[in-house]
UniProtKB/TrEMBL annotation, chain A:
The keyword Repressor does not apply. The gene is paaC. This is 1,2-phenylacetyl-CoA epoxidase subunit PaaC. It comes from Streptomyces catenulae. GO terms for molecular function: phenylacetyl-CoA 1,2-epoxidase activity. The keyword Oxidoreductase applies. Coiled coil: none annotated.
Automatic annotation (TrEMBL), chain B:
The gene is paaA. This is 1,2-phenylacetyl-CoA epoxidase subunit PaaA. Residues 1-34, 312-334 are annotated as: Disordered. It comes from the Bacteria. Residues 18-34 have a biased composition (Basic and acidic residues). PANTHER family: 1,2-PHENYLACETYL-COA EPOXIDASE, SUBUNIT A, PHENYLACETIC ACID DEGRADATION PROTEIN PAA. InterPro entries: Aromatic_CoA_ox/epox (IPR052703), Ferritin-like (IPR012347), Ferritin-like_SF (IPR009078), PaaA (IPR011881), PaaA_PaaC (IPR007814). It comes from Streptomyces catenulae.
Length: 288, 334
C-alpha cells in the first residue's frame, strides 16, 4: 500500500465538510430524536409551564452530567471511566434538547447555551440531590440509582402521555438511556453492598447521607401532567429491591425542608456553576 | 530502554524451524497471531510498545479532561467528553492487545504508576486555555495519526486491528480540534490570540512526539526489521510538517519556526531542530506536569482499590452461591 493511503485522512482535514455537525460530532448524537416531530406548542398546552418544566428537567441533567464529568480520570477502573462518561453524555444530550425546547416554548428563542451559561444559581430549578458533591464511588452510584430510577419512572410516563410531542420524543429517547443508567447503578450498589466490609460500610453511609434528599423527588406540582407523588411507590420499590439484593436496608429519614424545584439550593450549586460557566462568561463575545 | 537484541536467534532444530517460519511470515507480510510462535524479543518489544501506547491514552485523558467541566458551550462539552471517553476506550483495547501476549493489565498499570514504564512525553505539557483543546486535536492527534496509521499494517494482528479502530477515532478527534480552532479564529481578537499562543506552545513538543532523530533511536532498527514499525522517526516527522503547513496557512496562524520553508529541490519542507535536551528532561520526569499526571493516575488507582476489591469479593461470593444468585451483572460496565 502506498503512503498516500495513509495520508488521505490527514490531507482532507482542511477541506470543508458538508455534513451537519450533529453527524460527526460524536456525543451530540448521530440521530436527531426530533426528526419529523412538530415543534409548535400544541393548543391547550400552557407554554410557560412547559418551558419551566423542560428547563427544570434540563437543569437536573446538566448538573448530573457535570458531576459525572468530575469523575473523569478519577474513576476506580477504566471500564468505569467509559461507563460514567457514557451516562454523563446521555444526560448532557437530554439537557441540550430540553433547554432548546424550553427556549422555543417560552417564546424567548434562547438557545441551550443561554440557559446553561448565562443564568445564575438562583435561576436553576435542579433537584438538590443532583447538586451534592460526588463523595466516594458508593455515594455517586447510590445517588445515580435514585436519580436514574426517578427519571426513568417520570420519562416512561412522559413518553406515552406528555401533551407536548417534543417532550414526549425527548422522553422516549431518554427511557432507553435511563434504563441503562439504572442498571449500571443497581449493579454497582449490589456489588458494593455485598462485596467487602469496607464497601458495605461505605454504601450504608451513602444511603443514609442521601436519604434526606430523596423527599423532594416526590413533592410539588405535576410535571407535564405527571404528579411527582405518583412516582414514589415505583421508585422507592426499585431502590428497596436493589438494597435487598445487596444485603442493605433502605433507611428512613426526615426529608429536607423545601425543594430544589422551588428554588431552594444547597451551597454546592454556585461553585459548580462558577466552574461550568467560567470560560463562556470570560468571553461573552466569543464563538465556540 | 529496549530488552531486545537486534538479531533475534533461536537454538535447536525445532526452534530454528519455528524461527524460519516466523521470518517467512514477516517477509511475506503475513500477520503474526497470539498463538503463533514468536521470538522472545519480538514479544517483549511489542508488550513494551503496546503498553506504553495504552498508558499514553490513559494519561492523555488528563490534559484535555481538565476542560470538560469548563467547556464554553454544551456542544463543545459533549464533543470533548466523548473524545476523552474514546481515549479511555483506546486504552482498554490496547491493554487487551497486550494481554494477548501474556501481559496483565494490573501489572502494566503497576509499571505505569511506579514509573517503570513511560507514556508519551507530550502529555506532560499544561493546557492553560481552551484553545489548547483544539491545538491538541490538530497537532497531537495529527501526529498520533502519522505515527499510528502505518501501525495498522503492523505485523502483530491484534495490535494492527486495534490500530485500525483507534486511527478512525483519532482522525475524528483531529477534525474536531481543527474545527474548534477554525471557529475560534473567526471569533474575537482575544480568541485568535489564544489560538496562536497555543500553537506556539505545542508546535515543538508535537514534533518531538516522533521520537529522537533516527541516529539516536536505539529501538528503531529491530522494530523496523520485525515490521512492528514501518517508517523512521525522521521520515514521519517530516511528513507531519509537510501536511501541517498548508493547514496552518488556512487557519491563519504562524508556526513558530523561522527556518521553516519549502525546499523545491527536495519537494519537502526544511525545518528547524527541536530542543532535544528538553525532550530528554521531560522523559526523565522534569517536564512541567510529570508529577501532576502521575499523582492523578496513582491517586485514582489507589482510591479505587476498595471498589475493585468489592467487585472481586462479590463475584467470588456469587460464584460460591451458584447460578441462582440474587443478581447477575457480568460485564455490564464493559
Amino acid at each position: 500500500m502506498a503512503d498516500t493511503d495513509d495520508d488521505h485522512i490527514y490531507l482532507s482535514l482542511a477541506e470543508e465538510h458538508g455534513d451537519g455537525d450533529a453527524r460527526w460530532a460524536f456525543g451530540t448524537g448521530f440521530e436527531d430524536p426530533l426528526h419529523g416531530v412538530e415543534t409548535a406548542v400544541p393548543a391547550g398546552v400552557d407554554a410557560v409551564r412547559l418551558a419551566a418544566d423542560c428547563a427544570a428537567l434540563a437543569d437536573d441533567a446538566l448538573v448530573g452530567a457535570q458531576r459525572l464529568a468530575e469523575w473523569c480520570t478519577r474513576a476506580p477502573e477504566l471500564e468505569e471511566e467509559v461507563a460514567l462518561a457514557n451516562i454523563g453524555l446521555d444526560l448532557l444530550g437530554q439537557a441540550r434538547l430540553l433547554y432548546t425546547r424550553a427556549g422555543q416554548a417560552d417564546g424567548s428563542g434562547r438557545g441551550e447555551d443561554a440557559f446553561a451559561y448565562f443564568r445564575d444559581a438562583d435561576a436553576f430549578r435542579s433537584l438538590r440531590l443532583a447538586e451534592l458533591p460526588n463523595g466516594d464511588f458508593a455515594f455517586s452510584v447510590v445517588r445515580l440509582l435514585w436519580l436514574s430510577s426517578w427519571r426513568l419512572a417520570l420519562f416512561t410516563r412522559l413518553a406515552h402521555g406528555a401533551p407536548d410531542p417534543v417532550l414526549a420524543a425527548v422522553a422516549e429517547k431518554g427511557v432507553k438511556e435511563l434504563t441503562y443508567h439504572r442498571q449500571y447503578a443497581a449493579d454497582w450498589v449490589v456489588r458494593l453492598g455485598d462485596g467487602t466490609e469496607e464497601s458495605h460500610r461505605r454504601t450504608v453511609a451513602a444511603l443514609a447521607g442521601i436519604a434526606p434528599y430523596t423527599g423532594e423527588l416526590f413533592t410539588g406540582a405535576p410535571v407535564c401532567g405527571v404528579a411527582p407523588a405518583d412516582l414514589r411507590d415505583e421508585v422507592t420499590g426499585v431502590v428497596r429491591q436493589v438494597c435487598a439484593a445487596a444485603g442493605l436496608e433502605l433507611p428512613e429519614a426526615e426529608p429536607l425542608p423545601g425543594s430544589g424545584r422551588d428554588g431552594d439550593r444547597t451551597d454546592h450549586l454556585a461553585p459548580l456553576l462558577a466552574e461550568l460557566q467560567s470560560v463562556a462568561r470570560a468571553h461573552p463575545e466569543g464563538v465556540w | 530502554m529496549t530488552t531486545t537484541d537486534s538479531a533475534p536467534s533461536a537454538t535447536g532444530g525445532a526452534e530454528q524451524e519455528l524461527q524460519e517460519r516466523f521470518d517467512t511470515s514477516i517477509a511475506k507480510d503475513r500477520r503474526i497471531e497470539p498463538r503463533d510462535w514468536m521470538p522472545d524479543g519480538y514479544r517483549k518489544t511489542l508488550v513494551r510498545q503496546i503498553a506504553q501506547h495504552a498508558h499514553s491514552e490513559i494519561i492523555g485523558m488528563q490534559p484535555e479532561g481538565e476542560w470538560i467541566t469548563r467547556a464554553p458551550s454544551l456542544r463543545r462539552k459533549a464533543i470533548l467528553f466523548a473524545k476523552v471517553q474514546d481515549e479511555a476506550g483506546h486504552g482498554l483495547y490496547l491493554y487487551s492487545a497486550a494481554e494477548t501476549l501474556g501481559a496483565e493489565r494490573t501489572e502494566l498499570t503497576e509499571r505505569l504508576i511506579s514509573g517503570r514504564q513511560k507514556y508519551s512525553s507530550i502529555f506532560n505539557y499544561p493546557t492553560p486555555t481552551f484553545a489548547d483543546v483544539g491545538v491538541i486535536g490538530w497537532f497531537v492527534d495529527g501526529a498520533a495519526i502519522c505515527n499510528q496509521v502505518p501501525l495498522c499494517r503492523s505485523s502483530y494482528g491484534p495490535y494492527a486491528r486495534a490500530m485500525v479502530r483507534i486511527c478512525k477515532e483519532e482522525s475524528f478527534h483531529q477534525r474536531q480540534g481543527y474545527e474548534l480552532l477554525m471557529t475560534m479564529v473567526r471569533g474575537t481578537e482575544e480568541q485568535r490570540r489564544m489560538v496562536q499562543d497555543a500553537v506556539d506552545r505545542w508546535w515543538w513538543p508535537s514534533l518531538m512526539m516522533f521520537g529522537p532523530p533516527d541516529g539516536d533511536s536505539p529501538n528503531s532498527a529491530a522494530s523496523m526489521a520485525w515490521k512492528i514499525k514501518r517508517h523512521t522517526n525522521d521520515e514521519l516527522r517530516s511528513r507531519f510538517v509537510d501536511m501541517t503547513v498548508p493547514q496552518a496557512e488556512r487557519l491563519g496562524v504562524t508556526l513558530p519556526d523561522p527556518e521553516l520553508r519549502w525546499n523545491p529541490e527536495r519537494g519537502r519542507h526544511d525545518f528547524g531542530t527541536p530542543d532535544w535536551s528538553e525532550l530528554q528532561r521531560v522523559i526523565k520526569g522534569d517536564g512541567p506536569c510529570n508529577a501532576e499526571r502521575m499523582t492523578r493516575r496513582r491517586t485514582a488507582h489507589e482510591d479505587g482499590a476498595w471498589v475493585r476489591e468489592a467487585a472481586t469479593a462479590h463475584a467470588a461470593k456469587q460464584a460460591a452461591r451458584g447460578p441462582r444468585g440474587s443478581h447477575t451483572e457480568e460485564g455490564t460496565a464493559a
